[in-house]
Amino acid sequence: MPRKSKKKQRKGAVKERKEKVISSLQNFGEKTYDQIVSGEFPWTNIPSRSINNIFYDEKLRQYILGDRSVKRTARNIRHIRPLTQLIWIGMFADELSRQSKTSTLRDVYYSAQAYEMSFTDQQESDNLITDLETVIGYSREDFNVFPEERSAIFGDLTVEYTLPGYEGNKLNLTSHPDGMMIGPALTSSELVNCKADKVIAIEKGGLFTRFIEEKVHTKHKALLIHTAGQAPRATRGFLKRLNRELKLPVYIFTDGDPWGMHIAMVIISGSANAAHLRDLNTPDAKWFGVWATDIVDYKLPSDQLTELDVKRLHELKKDPRYEGKLWKKEIDTFIKINKKAEQEAFSRYGLTYIVDEYLPAKLEIAESL
Questions:
Q1: What is the CATH number of domain 3-146?
Q2: Residue ranges of the domains in the chain?
Q3: pLDDT digits (tens, 9 = 90+) for 115-132
Q4: Which DSSP category does 143 fall into?
Q5: Residue 110 appears among annotated catalytic residues
Q6: pTM for the full model?
Q7: Partner of 45 at 20 to 30 A CA spacing, among 4, 62, 152, 169?
Q8: Which of 110, 251, 322, 353 is labelled catalytic?
């Protein structure tokens, strides 16, 4: 396919997805309306998110929900309140989507009061938002509801905003030396021009800043993403877009401990909590450090594993997502050496060692995995 045609195809991806989300919300509303008009008690089936309905799919390489569902019906007096709340959240999500407005989880909780729709607490409204995700098959970020946490991106990628008031405005993501926040405006933008050929997702803010200072984005033609610890769902969805739409390989750089491994695995294979969603994980992303074997090979300053760390490692050994050769080897090495290390540990060799020596070596290994 000619280069221009590929760009044109990518440019319509956000608009097409938005239309599908609105259509799905509309179908949910129309089904409820038709049930009432026909004299039927309104009802809906909600896929069960119980632990015995969550399975790891080796083909998709992520957790998925099974076939079990729960019927929520107004015929049952105990279901009337949660069903009404779910329908209201669907209406609110539809309003946000059609008007291209955004909201936070907290804001949804308070907005309900304007409609005399109350929730016991925010946890109740959060759970119902997740119910809506399972019903319509799209994430809350797709209907413009976001959590508060944010991460950041830096690199030679030009985006075109679709946000009302900013439509058509273009921005290169090297514009701000601290990186650009991965918020609603960015995740809903079109990806129009990219000079990078890879993505490096970085757990720690200090290393993200160091990589910008040392021009990793030009030396290695990389988009740099600060995950801010466990990557927020919006960031994981954006990583998926970069991989799927721009065909960029994704490499994940975390602390050398079981929690860093888990941060990487959630990007790769998703989480049980989001088993009902399909566009939040990047199955071909690769964790390329800090490995347990790096602690040994690079003689890194390290700390002893805590009891909680060891317990977590044994939990990972039982998790089907960690059955690959690399994961098993690194888990066993962590347990054997009883040590963990942070990304910053490479500074013992100088401020630029991690960029000049470690990063090129690990990228070369990662490309062959």
A1: 1.10.10.10
A2: 3-146, 195-367
A3: 888 899 999 999 999 999
A4: G
A5: yes
A6: 0.89
A7: 62
A8: 110
